[in-house]
Known about the structure:
Largest sheet of chain A: 6 strands, mixed
Helix content of chain A: 25-40%
Largest interface: A-B, 48 and 47 residues
Shape of chain A: globular
Number of strands of chain A: 23
Strand content of chain A: 15-25%
Distance between the termini of chain A: 44 Å
Structural class of chain A: alpha/beta
Strand order of the largest sheet of chain A: 9-14-13-12-10-11
Number of helices of chain A: 20
Oligomer: homodimer
Amino acid sequence: MISRQEAQARARELVSQMTLEEKATQLRFNSPAIERLGVPAYNWWNEALHGVARCGTATMFPQAIGMAAAFDEKAMEQVGDVIATEGRAKYNAHSALGDRDLYKGLTFWSPNVNIFRDPRWGRGHETYGEDPYLTSRLGVGYIKGVQGDGKSGYLKAAACAKHFAVHSGPEANRHEFDAIINQKDLWETYLPAFEAAVKEADVEAIMGAYNRVNGEPCCGSKTLLKDILRGKWAYQGHVVSDCWAICNFHQTHKVTSTPAESAALALENGCDVNCGSTYLNMLQAYQDGLVTEEQITASCERAFTTRFLLGLFDEDCEYNAIPYTANDTDEHDALAREMAEKSMVLLKNNGVLPLDPHKVKTVAVVGPNANSIGAMRGNYYGTSSRMTTLLAGIRAYCAQHGIRVLYSEGCGLLNPTVEFMCAANDRLSEAIQCANHADVVIACVGLDETLEGEQGDQSNYSASGDKTTLMLPECQQTLLNAMEATGKPLVTVLAVGSSLNVPQGDAQLVAWYSGQAGGTALARILFGEVNPSGKLPVTFYHKTEDLPDFEDYSMKNRTYRYFTGDVLYPFGHGLSYTTFHADGFTLRQDAATVSISNTGDKAGETVVQVYARNMTSSFAPPRPVLVGFARTGMLWPGETTLVEVKLDKNAFTVVNDEGERVQDGAQWEVFAGLCQPDEKSVQLCGDEPLRMEIEV
Amino acid sequence: MISRQEAQARARELVSQMTLEEKATQLRFNSPAIERLGVPAYNWWNEALHGVARCGTATMFPQAIGMAAAFDEKAMEQVGDVIATEGRAKYNAHSALGDRDLYKGLTFWSPNVNIFRDPRWGRGHETYGEDPYLTSRLGVGYIKGVQGDGKSGYLKAAACAKHFAVHSGPEANRHEFDAIINQKDLWETYLPAFEAAVKEADVEAIMGAYNRVNGEPCCGSKTLLKDILRGKWAYQGHVVSDCWAICNFHQTHKVTSTPAESAALALENGCDVNCGSTYLNMLQAYQDGLVTEEQITASCERAFTTRFLLGLFDEDCEYNAIPYTANDTDEHDALAREMAEKSMVLLKNNGVLPLDPHKVKTVAVVGPNANSIGAMRGNYYGTSSRMTTLLAGIRAYCAQHGIRVLYSEGCGLLNPTVEFMCAANDRLSEAIQCANHADVVIACVGLDETLEGEQGDQSNYSASGDKTTLMLPECQQTLLNAMEATGKPLVTVLAVGSSLNVPQGDAQLVAWYSGQAGGTALARILFGEVNPSGKLPVTFYHKTEDLPDFEDYSMKNRTYRYFTGDVLYPFGHGLSYTTFHADGFTLRQDAATVSISNTGDKAGETVVQVYARNMTSSFAPPRPVLVGFARTGMLWPGETTLVEVKLDKNAFTVVNDEGERVQDGAQWEVFAGLCQPDEKSVQLCGDEPLRMEIEV
């Protein structure tokens, strides 16, 4: 058993025995051992965005954006719990052998709760999408799962909300970029998920972002770290810098002149742990009078508080008993499949889906993402021992049902030529012939981390990883056009982490980067074993030209709350093989209830969405805002269920221009249903949300 | 229906209507269309070493060296037949859409019947091993399969025996290398497989090698192409150059001074088709008086004879009817699995294999080749739509039997660090913990084409692709030592294409590069569903220091026929889970018969091997030579079968120093059994071959 107070006391006691030099070493991500005090080495850097990452074999869940599409806070908590179980199993196994290397600790630098405000951002697929409330709920779910139920006081593992704050591209200039942001957008859009992580989930770590915000570099920002995080929010955990972000202070942001000054700026604002090497200059900063021993001690105590809370020095920590065999289990694989199934979004369907396994004799599976590992894993991934590609999943299903599969890669992801020295589109005739000989074409297209990813990743085709267009690479468009021209029913599957504009397809599914069981999940959805229930956590736009400049951080004309133009597919959209009808909408302060009926002929589940709009306040966003969501659970044809939707505690507030959350204007309209209450959403969904006016 | 005479006549007739310029264009590998004559474009370059390669989806058989280990001429013919079926299905489908690109024709530049005389050769895994007779039989089998039964006279596809001749490394200097070779070695070792391909299998194409032989560049060698191939052997097919081999004449071999001279030297010696661009200078060569129109015409006629024999201009060719759906079928996959099962060689076994699926609860699968696609495909591969890695195969089997699988990559293939920025051996503790929690460790180690491959391939770690050692890369040795140190039973699986010296393992299996069904095959062997029956087609040496210089093409102290030192595992070696006993050896001129009994307690099959040694001739190689082999078929415990082993028609001849095959010395000893008649082989095999002396 341990409490934060106890951990803090033990940290104080331990740190009090350290020399200044020793304390300084413990602020580096790769903290060395202090043998005389029985302190082992500890590497703070570990990753677990959608499964324990970069640490060998682990269950790989769908990429974060895909899990977001499940709109399922409870499931996110289960995922977080599995991640912590696997992380513990690995930590126990590794540390028993003295292996305390990078990526082998219990401080997971996930989740990424940045707002995916622009579809061009290469790392957008690491996030839970564009909505602050959805992001808050899923972040809280994930963090609670990772950190455990807290009964003994020990953390199962430590989560880390990142990147604090106002961080969503461009990747190319992230090390020198200054995000200029007004207080309303800051508090309404960019901070809520961090605030929820701190206040509701007691997140143990916060990572500062690379960029500046209104002139201050995030990892040394008085405003963000002192005034807001530790001031307003009374945050008790530790702060870590993004990797090699502190050297940006003098190298690229140029707000300091020397490494020692940069270290000092970060430390004095409460950045406790440095991913990077700038804190190697901490003693220099001390000698230069830039930092005090008290500051070093305070950060060191916060770091050790986390280590005590993780039970790293205690034999009674219940998580020490998690065996290595708790890693990569069949049960975890089943959860990965369930998440993939819940995550996939049916954008459109003229009736071709679901495929009837008794009628379909031959399917053509084509496209560069059909048999691609990259299309399954997004970024920040571990090693799956049981990766089922989209093709492999379809083949396995078809093998059981006597259905022939014809496969063609079709083209490269970006390159029209697959085989060295061949002509452009060298797989096109193969793909056409697959289609010609099939009853239906399943075209698996999209992107992967080489086309949307992180700045500096060696795998990026471009330096930055950002997208420059919402269209598929030209060769994939050529492929889809050719498939369409065969006249065969065409199902387009988008393995992607963001908004794409793909016109082709009698039916279109967004599979996201679907993790190790993605192929199995896709097959079950295609053939109707599972009814799709995912909803878009981001707006799908027509084109980048409809959007503000990528570097403009104002929310004006961004995301479903502020975008006023026509969209391709709205936030919250996602079809089913059955039809649902909402009825009997009631509202309390903290919850709505809606009666949902399955009015179609197939079992399925869906997501009830509640949106609210202040009808008079000048601070209200132009369009209704998500304030609640809940999965219905499985409904059989004809079945009705009463769904209680918990509401955002800030549901009936607005954020004024000073960034204050206030009640301004008492008249609200509230909508509950299966989509947003706008024309396009309703047209796609086919069922208008229920509307109620209330006075708050 | 067509005959060669008819095809030749039609070729003559067609070519007679061409201008000189047109004829010259038809000698290039990418022959353009001649529309006025109704001649479509044709790209001569296609590959099919172990399945149709570089042309999209196709069944991927084990790499050639693995298929050689099956010692099964009939199965090679089946494989060749499947390749031709798939090649035709693709050709029909592609050409119907006007797609006549590179790798889309019916002239397959396989098999590679070079002699794998030195384990360092990076391309050795493309061959059928080190023995001329085994290589001849398997080459003939493959070619017959590819070219079809000939009933209608049409070729199902055209095979190509390569690289003619005396070509087996080094890769690094292949474009300037001069293989110095005596006549005895030439005729005894390097030429027989080509002679068999021509005389027994009517191979339709021969590819000249890059190197020189005794001063003459192979693609322009009067000795090889005129005197031997078209002279002594009366070869009727066409000759193609290796790719960009003819420009080597002036650029690297420096036997000519200009492209025109190089083109002329190749053409005048009968190299009909140029893979490369040197024949773009053919008209220049003509204008310079270096070649005659008759020479151009003759080569053009040979090229078109092949195209007519392929039925490319005929509607009655029965192979035109092969539909696209004949590609990548379940039946072909089953043959790929059967070949993989027959190919795997059990080097040693202390009884740990087969694993009992009812007793084993947990297996650890570790190693960089466990879940590697590269470890399945060797080189010159197509795209499998159903690749089952070793791990995937084991997992699928274990899932059916309730056995837990723990997986760790263990290390990189060459790099001890798997994760960027981590310490060396960063997966070692994971692998150890997998082992610690398992009943048995299956370590999948070895190489892939990045470590043994072809010169110039971008994927090579080194420029050349040759091996410099017979040891595993150090990180893999470290992994195996760590696995051994756990004390758990250790099964070492070598995914490799050549001789490696790997000491670790209670049991050791050579899986080769096992193709798309390799994982399924391996699992069935590990758990005793299939009894291993593969035999080494190459000697496994202790170390390269035991061998002559790599550039020395003399057979002295090379391969089992001439190597006199101690070997690690002999040519022909391969254990079974049961024991066999040979008895009742009789001999006719053209066949031996042996009675084989399964004296153990498990069903299985094996390979009967017959070796002969002339007891008096000074031209006899130092050790008995393989003159016959045959698979027994499945034998149940206690079952006995009489196996007839067809003998090499040259079994009782020797090759003298002039390269003449002669009868010299009448006294022969002949051995029949389950291994070579030497001490090491017998010690490993446990059953001494039967011996007979005869006078011929």
